[in-house]
């Protein structure tokens, strides 16, 4: 008889590939992936983004050719980011909701091309302000909170009006969730449009490729007075609870991999909300760079990282790997 204690033996439970799958509380599915897309104001653009392997800036006229094959493979949702290159930017981000601007044009185009595709829109001012900050500023360069949230709510409502299923404010201004929710309700979209809050968005070094792609670097200073300090677990928990109270329908954590504890906190604090996380540009670029350097296999690492997010509690993952996962899953 073996001298092994019964309580020592675990391996029998995961000896087979199928029994290994059963160890996950939840599996990755195609529906969990939302694909971030950059829309520029040149309608015929298809421009490679050097720091984001395989990703491009798209013009509205190119969206059908780009997305049709992905929709056929099971793509169910996208999130749109405007990349205006020719508009005249000002201090309040006027071009953000220009009806002829790239985001509103893209919402309308996608609604007509792909009736079943769920269309979320990022809502922020930084791509449209002449100073590149995410809100409206005082003369001394600090955030002027009330006009910021009023303007952000106005933009969100105009995206809803254009046909967005979901508006997702990434600005991190205090009070904007309440202002957007009120605006949606007053405009008749309270029961039609989802409000996904970038609740715990950290001032991360992982946004570099996105800023290249979106041209959204601030012209002075940084965003450390509104994005959260990377050490700030308590603040993140307060922001998550505040946004849930203010009417957020989905809570998001961004970035993902260095903030898995915050994803787990969100799942614990708001267990009745979907929990989203954004696998940001720098995470995606890092995984590609590591694979290219022979550190690991790309697909294996793409699975390991996104599965860690699901394990932490995420139910929705914004990822540039979405087209790959439509093939892999
Ligand atoms: Zn911004």
TrEMBL record:
CDD domains: eu_ALAD_PBGS_cysteine_rich. It catalyses: 2 5-aminolevulinate = porphobilinogen + 2 H2O + H(+). SMART domains: ALAD (SM01004). The active site is at 201 (schiff-base intermediate with substrate), 254 (schiff-base intermediate with substrate). InterPro entries: ALAD, ALAD_AS, Aldolase_TIM. Its cofactor is Zn(2+). GO terms for biological process: heme biosynthetic process. 5-aminolevulinate 1 binds at residues 211, 223. Keywords: Heme biosynthesis, Lyase, Metal-binding, Porphyrin biosynthesis, Zinc. GO terms for molecular function: porphobilinogen synthase activity; zinc ion binding. The keyword Metal-binding applies. It is an enzyme of class 4 (lyase). The keyword Electron transport does not apply. Zn(2+) binds at residues 124, 126, 134. Pathway: Porphyrin-containing compound metabolism; protoporphyrin-IX biosynthesis; coproporphyrinogen-III from 5-aminolevulinate: step 1/4. Its EC number is 4.2.1.24. One of its GO terms (cellular component) is cytosol. Homooctamer. Belongs to the ALAD family. This is Delta-aminolevulinic acid dehydratase. It comes from Gymnopilus junonius (Spectacular rustgill mushroom).
């Amino acid at each position: 008889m073996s001298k092994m204690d019964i309580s020592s033996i675990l391996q029998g439970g995961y000896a087979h590939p199928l029994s290994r799958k059963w160890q996950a509380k939840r599996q990755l599915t195609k529906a969990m992936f939302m694909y971030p897309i950059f829309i520029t104001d040149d309608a015929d653009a298809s421009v490679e983004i050097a720091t984001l392997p395989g990703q491009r800036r798209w013009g509205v006229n190119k969206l059908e050719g780009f997305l049709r094959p992905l929709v056929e493979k099971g793509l169910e949702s996208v999130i749109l980011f405007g990349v205006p290159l020719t508009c005249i930017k000002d201090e309040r981000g006027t071009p953000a909701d220009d009806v002829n601007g790239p985001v509103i044009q893209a919402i309308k185009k996608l609604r007509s091309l792909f009736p079943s595709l769920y269309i979320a829109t990022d809502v922020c001012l930084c791509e449209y302000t002449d100073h590149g900050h995410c809100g409206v500023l005082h003369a001394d360069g600090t955030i002027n909170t009330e006009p910021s949230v009023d303007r952000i709510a106005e933009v969100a409502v105009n995206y809803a009006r254009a046909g967005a299923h979901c508006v997702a404010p990434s600005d991190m201004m205090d009070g904007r969730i309440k202002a957007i929710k009120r605006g949606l309700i007053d405009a008749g979209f309270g029961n039609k449009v989802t409000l996904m809050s970038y609740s715990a968005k950290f001032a991360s070094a992982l946004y570099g490729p996105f800023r290249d792609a979106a041209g959204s670097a601030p012209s002075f200073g940084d965003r450390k007075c509104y994005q959260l300090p990377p050490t700030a677990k308590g603040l993140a928990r307060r922001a998550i609870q505040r946004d849930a109270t203010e009417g957020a329908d989905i809570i998001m954590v961004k970035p993902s991999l260095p903030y898995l504890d915050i994803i787990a906190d969100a799942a614990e604090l708001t267990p009745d909300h979907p929990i989203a996380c954004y696998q940001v540009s720098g995470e995606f670029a890092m995984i590609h760079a590591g694979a290219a350097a022979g550190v690991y296999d790309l697909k294996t690492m793409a699975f390991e990282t996104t599965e860690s997010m699901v394990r932490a509690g995420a139910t929705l993952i914004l990822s540039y790997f979405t087209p790959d996962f439509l093939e892999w899953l």
